[in-house]
């Protein structure tokens, strides 16, 4: 919840309205300018935007610091004129030739230097657009075959890089977003436990948090609501990427609640119970439109995810807590199961 009790601030990133290209086929929609995406965000009831560094400054690697300052300043003005805020900026450390074999764990010191320089530019951009955090998805930190890198060394290399970044900006807060695979076969920081442990290894654990993405937890074979609970227990859940996923497939980024309503309900429940949002945390989405969607409706997955989230907030708040407590005390979990399903399906429940 935000400062207004009970109201969540929600965000998404420009990549969540995309052209529909996948590894097997080309784009099927025209690109939509960032300004239009921001307008759409406001119309749909969102409060902020998430960014990759080059969503803010295109072709970042070719830009001077003056150009970076000017272009990021323009984005800040665009946000302000829409009444939106920037939640985070994330360095895109997986696209350049230098990051083919990883960023901070690359075997080539020149490539590691590229990753460090690029991330420092991301931090500069984050300050220029007034974003709250840097999100770090460690996309290619891992291996395709184990023998090319040392697992122990990779962790220490990432820790050293984080220490340098925490020194570069003494107010910087970094949220590690784990994912077990894709694009690498085996990521070195696959789960939320790894992400939190990594934060504790740095010189400023108090500025290290994490972000749980529903689909990423599921790709680990884990339950996202439990991952959120684990991070909340550590006081480290500083953002989420809500979406959905039909089991152990590629990272589908489906609309929140689209596959498994009860799973979504339990994510909302764990957030509500902990008062998530009261310390300025955002409810972020990371969802993708189906490739079938035509141009003029290529934003419906965002509207639907937001609606589903808010409807589930009402479902969580509308639970009969006394009944829940009573059934737990009686250890009648089958009955509780039935009650929850009736509640979710909107069916009348009679004990
Ligand atoms: C990739 C993913 C990223 C991060 C930000 O699966 O989720 O978009 O959220 O870099
Ligand atoms: Mn994500």
In short:
With 351 residues, this protein is of the alpha/beta class.
Question: Could you characterize what this model shows?
Answer:
With about 350 residues, the protein is an alpha/beta fold. The chain has one domain (about 10-320): Divalent-metal-dependent TIM barrel enzymes (TIM Barrel, Alpha-Beta Barrel), CATH 3.20.20. It is about 40% helix and about 10% strand. Strands 1-2-3-4-6-8-9-10 form an eight-stranded parallel beta barrel, surrounded by six helices. Strands 5-7 form a two-stranded antiparallel sheet. Strand 3 (about 85-90), helix 4 and strand 4 form a beta-alpha-beta unit. Helix 8 packs parallel to helix 9 and helix 9 crosses helix 10 (about 300-315). It is globular, with a radius of gyration of 21 Å. D-xylulose binds next to strand 4.
Structural class by helix and strand composition: alpha/beta
The fourth-level CATH homologous superfamily is: Divalent-metal-dependent TIM barrel enzymes
Mean pLDDT: 97
- Which ions and ligands are bound to the chains? D-xylulose, manganese (II) ion
The assigned CATH architecture is: Alpha-Beta Barrel
Overall helicity = 40-55%
Which term fits the overall shape?
Answer: globular
Count every helix, treating DSSP H or I runs of 4 or more residues as helices. 12
Order of helices and strands: EHEHHEHEEHEEHEHHEHEHHH
Main sheet: strand order: 1-2-3-4-6-8-9-10
- Sheet with the most strands, sense and barrel status: 8 strands, parallel, barrel
List the helices and strands and how they pair.
Layout: E1 10-12, H1 34-43, E2 48-52, H2 53-56, H3 65-82, E3 85-90, H4 109-128, E4 133-137, E5 142-143, H5 151-168, E6 174-177, E7 186-187, H6 192-201, E8 208-213, H7 214-219, H8 224-233, E9 237-242, H9 261-273, E10 282-285, H10 300-317, H11 321-329, H12 333-345
Parallel strand pairs: 1-2, 1-10, 2-3, 3-4, 4-6, 6-8, 8-9, 9-10
Antiparallel strand pairs: 5-7
Helix pairs in contact: 8-9, 9-10
The structure holds D-xylulose and manganese (II) ion.
